[in-house]
Structures are given as C-alpha cells and as structure tokens.
Design brief:
alpha+beta; single chain; 3 domains; about 15% strand; 4-stranded mixed beta sheet; Ribosomal Protein S5, domain 2
Length: about 290
C-alpha cells in the first residue's frame, strides 16, 4: 500500500549541465502531474510525465526542474535594445530640466525592455541525461516516503476494520433479541390496556411477524460481512486500491444507514452510531491511499 503524500529530491551533474529536481505529491482522485521547467526546456514535460505515470496511478505530483550550466555560452545572451534605450534617454533628458534631483542616470537600466536576456535554445539530447538521472533519484525518494506512509495507513485501516467487524458481530448477536423483546413489550402493553391475548393468537403472531419482516437486517449484515472480507484483502494488497477501498467504505456506510432506518432498538441504534463513526474514520484515511 502506498500513500499519495510524500517528497523527494535528486541531483545530477554532467558537462556542461547539472540538474536538481524536487518533487512532492498530495492526494487526488486521478493522477495529476504538474511540471515547472525552464522556458527553454518545455520539451522536458513529456518524458518527465512518462516517468511519473510509470511510478504512480493517483495523486497530484508536482515536479520542479532546475538546470545550471558551467558554460557561459549555455546560459544565454544579454542583449540591449539601443533604439529603445535612446527613446528612454531622450525622454529622460527632457525631464531632467524640472526633476534633476529626482532622476538618476541609473534609472535607465531599470526601464522595461532595454536589457533582455535571451535564453539559449536547449536540445533534449543535451540535457535529458542529467535531468533523467536527477528525476529518477527524486522519484525514488518520493516512492520510499509514500510506501512508508502507506505502511502506517495499512495499520490504521486494519485497526479500523477490526473495530467494524466487532460492531457487526454485536449487531448480529443483538438482532434476534429485538423481535423477542418486541413480542414481550407488545404483550405487556395489551395486558396493561386490559386486552390480554395468548401468545399463539393469530393477530398477535401476524403483528410480530410483520415487525420481524420490517426490522430484518440479515441481508445488510451479510453484505457487510462480504464488504469486510473484500476490504481486508485490499488492505493487504500491493496494488493501487484507493478507489476500491473508497467504494467499499461508501457501501458499508449505506448498509449501516439501512440498518439504522430499520432499527427499533436502542442498543442497535447505538451500534449503528458507533459503526458510522468508524466508517467515517476509515474513509478519511482511504482518501490518501493510492
């Protein structure tokens, strides 16, 4: 099991390029890779996307790529717009007559467009070896962190599932007693009203039968047992199971809701409240499982 939360970084050095990659991920329903690369190296996004999709199936994965060169020729070329500088200078001089004490000559260097750094056009073959090495190192660290967090999630989910199993067993044990308790309560109310009926009276048997049918939760308990087994198997799986676990948690919550709507017993109602609380805790943890 892997979490969708983690961080990793990697570095690689070559000639003339060196690279540093930082990557972190958070939970998302789908795989959502986002890349921050130099403008002159946007072509890196496609191969980097392939590296990420080969590792992960869910999560928002943000990767930042920093490239440095030990060669001035690779850094870029600083160019000056002489014509634009001349226009700025003419206007600057016209203002000096009235604002000489406010305008310094260096203000011209801050004028937009006078100095332009043209980035060197890069080629994939020239930078990809160091970028790939750094990216793989960063993804390795990220994978390790996601797996470590996944082990913790696996333990937490197993404990939550055990508590749900205990509650379901209690419901199974309590369900038959509800009908017996209803029959005794109905007989007692009839006696208190001065209308005692024998327990084998057809009218009394029919009423108890209708109550038993309305309050029968055996199907819901059977489905909960099936969902519990499936969830236990998914929790121990090494595959991407986040979506499956989330679906099962929703189905379990639906079954407990149905049991709550059928329940005419305070003890069962209390068990339903406990179960829904545990299911919500499980669902919160599942949201971060890949």
């Amino acid at each position: 099991m892997q979490s969708m939360t983690g961080y990793g970084q990697g570095e690689a050095a070559g000639t003339p390029w060196s690279c540093r990659v930082e990557v972190h991920s958070v939970n998302r329903k789908q795989l959502d890779p986002v890349f921050h690369v130099p403008k002159a190296a946007v072509f890196l996004e496609r191969p980097l996307r392939n590296l990420v999709s080969a590792r992960f199936s869910r999560g928002r994965v943000q990767m930042k790529v920093l490239l440095e060169s030990d060669s001035d020729a690779q850094v870029g070329e600083l160019k000056t717009s002489t014509s634009l500088a001349r226009q700025y200078l003419d206007h600057h001089r016209s203002l000096l007559a009235d604002y000489a004490d406010c305008l310094a000559p260096l203000e011209l260097s801050r004028a937009p467009g006078v100095y332009v750094l043209e980035e060197q056009e890069l080629e994939l073959d020239a930078v990809w070896p160091v970028v790939e090495e750094a990216a793989l190192a960063a993804l390795d660290q990220l994978t390790v962190m996601r797996r470590e967090e996944g082990e913790h999630l696996q333990e937490v989910l197993s404990q939550g599932l055990q508590r749900l199993e205990t509650i379901t067993v209690s419901m199974t044990e309590r369900a038959p007693a509800v009908v017996v308790q209803y029959r005794a309560a109905l007989s007692r109310r009839l006696e208190e009203a001065g209308l005692p009926l024998p327990l084998d009276d057809d009218r009394l048997v029919k009423e108890i039968g209708l109550f038993a049918e309305r309050s029968d939760i055996s199907e819901e308990l059977d489905r909960l047992g099936s969902h519990t087994k499936q969830m236990a198997a998914y929790i121990q799986s090494s595959e991407s199971v986040g979506r499956s676990l989330d679906f099962l948690a929703q189905e379990m919550n639906r079954e407990f809701n149905t049991i709550g709507s059928k329940s005419n017993d305070a003890a069962l109602t209390q068990l339903v409240v406990q179960a829904k609380t545990e299911v919500e805790k499980v669902r919160e943890q599942v949201q971060n499982v890949e």
